[in-house]
Amino acid sequence: MIEQDEARTTNIMKRGEFLNKGPEVKSDTPEFLHAFSPSLPRNLLGLAKWLVDPQNPLVARVTVNRWWAEIFGQGIVETLEDFGTQGEAPTHPQLLDWLAVDFVENGWSMKHIHRLLVMSATYRQSSRLTPELLESDPKNKLLGRANRLRLPAETIRDNALAASGLLQNKMFGEPVYPPQPDGIWRHVGRNAPKYDTSTGVNRFRRGIYTVWRRGAPYASFVNFDATDRGVCTVKRSRTNTPLQALNLLNDQAYVELAFGLAERVLTEQPKTDDAARLEHAFRCCLVRKPTDDELKVLQAVLADERANLAADPAQVETLNAHWSPKSKLDETELAIWFRVAEVLLNLDEMITRG
Predict the structure, then answer these.
(1) From CA 258, how far away is CA 339, in angstroms rounded?
(2) Rounded to 5 degrees, what are φ and ψ at 348?
(3) Are 80 and 66 spatial neighbours (Cβ–Cβ below 8 Å)?
(4) 85, HSE (Cβ side, Cα atoms, 13 Å)
(5) 165, 263, 289, 330: which has the highest count of C-beta atoms within 10 A?
(6) pLDDT tens per residue across span 62-120
């Protein structure tokens, strides 16, 4: 058998079937882009230098387009992941070219481009939609107004942390485990992981540091359209579901944030009337004064909660069991203002930009 195999191999080689390997193939870059300089090494370092060569328009265009999409809600090229013939044409091609050139000429500075975009007159427009704008440009491709966008999942929690006064600005380190519903990490098998909820500073760090497990991602982030990171996602979807409101009202993390906001208001406004405290709480969340109508609604919430807790004092102890205030506060007042804080943290304006 071995002799037959050797004979067959010899015959094939004689016919030249193994010897004719075709033309030699070398690594190279697409011919329709700028040439690969002979001075560059043909390795990953050389490829990186070729990519950021000022003669290459593609990298700068794709980069500024993605930043534009993050800030304005949609890219100048809507298909962020596809600048090819199958993608959408840019709505403002000259603007995209100018931004790309400006990005390169300013040393590829992210800070420069971000400052340029957010200080522009286009970004600072009102999001008010008039009948004329709705008829002429319903998708706002011509940028006649600002887009109203729900914040990304991680930013929604970060924003609530900042309003409550609990946000910790510590940077770097291992992932943290903020509160989430019990049982999400349980699964069948050996060495089942245990979700050890963080305490102290780590409990209230920014969402970027939250631990992520693809089989069971952080629940409140998923409700607000964060991805499971199973695949690369260039553009997240934005959906509106009842689960999101329930999340902001009932999730343990947001219950703690509402108590944090209530404690902040009572501590920072210890000897003022309800109207002043409501205005302060409103400023903490939305960085503006409430309108007269908004103030009346919040005063009604406050009056209703005072009546409810007066009729059933046992609720005070039940509610306050979720929180240990840093300073000595009236327990009933803390429970009342917790309910007001829940309303404020659940406002559409609290989770929406523009």
Answers:
(1) 8
(2) -60, -40
(3) yes
(4) 0
(5) 263
(6) 999 999 999 998 899 988 888 888 888 899 999 999 999 999 999 999 999 999 999 99
Render pLDDT for 263-305 as a digit per residue (tens, 0 to 9).
999 999 888 888 999 999 999 999 999 999 999 999 999 999 9
Which pairs count as long-range contacts for 323-326, CB under 8 Å and 24+ apart, including other chains? Answer: 323/255, 323/256, 323/259, 323/260, 323/263, 325/259, 325/263, 326/263
Surface-to-core class of residue 161, CB atoms within 10 Å of its CB (0-12 exposed, 13-18 middle, 19+ buried): buried
pTM of the predicted protein model: 0.81
The amino acid that residue 77 corresponds to is: V
Rounded to whole angstroms, the Cα distance separating 260 from 160 reads: 10
User: What is the torsional sign of CA 172, 178, 184, 187?
Assistant: positive
| Closest to 178 (Cα-Cα) out of 148, 205, 151, 158 | 205
User: What is the token pair recorded at 298?
Assistant: 């919040």
Domain regions of the chain by residue span: 1-147, 149-354
- Give the C-alpha separation, 194 to 158, whole Å: 25
Q: 232 near 81, Cβ under 8 Å?
A: no
**Contact of 211 with 176, CB cutoff 8 Å:** yes
Residue 328 CB: number of other CB atoms within 10 A?
A: 6
